[in-house]
Amino acid sequence: MARTRLYRNGVLVAENFPAADVSDHLADPSATVWLDMCAPTEDDLATISEELSLHRLAVEDAVHEHQRPKLDRYDTHAFLTAYAARLDAITGRLVTSELAAFVTDRALVTVRKDEHFDIDAVLARWDSATDLAKSGVGFLLHGLLDYVVDGHFEAVQALDEQIEDLEDRVFADHVDHADMQRRSLDLRRSLVALRRVVLPMREVVNSVMRHDFHVCDETLMPYFQDVYDHVLRASEWTESLRDLVSTIRETQLNLQSYRLNIIMKKVTSWAAIIAVPTAVTGFYGQNVPYPGFQQASGFWISTVAILVISGALYVLFRRRDWL
What we know:
Blueprint: E1 3-8, E2 11-15, H1 22-26, E3 31-38, H2 42-52, H3 56-63, E4 70-73, E5 78-87, E6 94-103, E7 107-112, H4 119-128, H5 137-170, H6 177-198, H7 201-208, H8 221-284, H9 296-319
Parallel strand pairs: 3-7
Antiparallel strand pairs: 1-2, 1-3, 4-5, 5-6, 6-7
Helix pairs in contact: 4-5, 5-6, 5-8, 6-8, 7-8, 8-9
């Protein structure tokens, strides 16, 4: 079911009226209308697209999924695509919700591709800044972009915390390497997905702020500038985290190689020590006469030789940190 709002001279005067009444309300120059639709088809958008003279290509993009974040400008309106994002704290995977929006002089039409996009949070932002409602469509667009960009920023912050935890676990004494590898790959995949939806938002917000777009007035300019600042910070943070995950991965592999070398040194050292009694007993096992042959002194000489040589090797390997 479509959700609607009507503002007149910056005051909310009606909600949830039929979508068919949108054109009647827009006949009033002081009116600003918001219409929201969830997972509509092209037939569902046919009526509103005819009333608002929406471009056919924009309507197709609004229905089809997996569009890139962008702002396309047509003669009578602009078409916006963006993604809300949040990080699943348990799996470390990014969850995105696609949104399309038609921006006209006095109407904002939002098209959610699924119900996971929290449109109620956007309404809460509009209701908390009623003093800006006189700016019309710019006010509605600001609340929408502010919610989307803040979600990106929170997702980056959550990823940063997950990566810090992963970084601490790299140097732990007992590490589950399989879990570490899976976790690092999940975080890297989430960062790549977040980067795809965050970086294009710089151009989107920058285009909205241009004077020839006629949406961002002098009152809203500082607010859009704040949104743009958040976009830049989220973009830069995403890039730095991407490098950090790669560094953690390389560090993990280097530590695994280092620990393997330590194990190999220990195994080799013990093998050298064990070879001493093998060599001594093998020598005394010869079927020829030798000093101490068939005498008790021969046993004690071989035993002392084993203990002395093995002890000397043990001390030597310990000093060289091989054991």
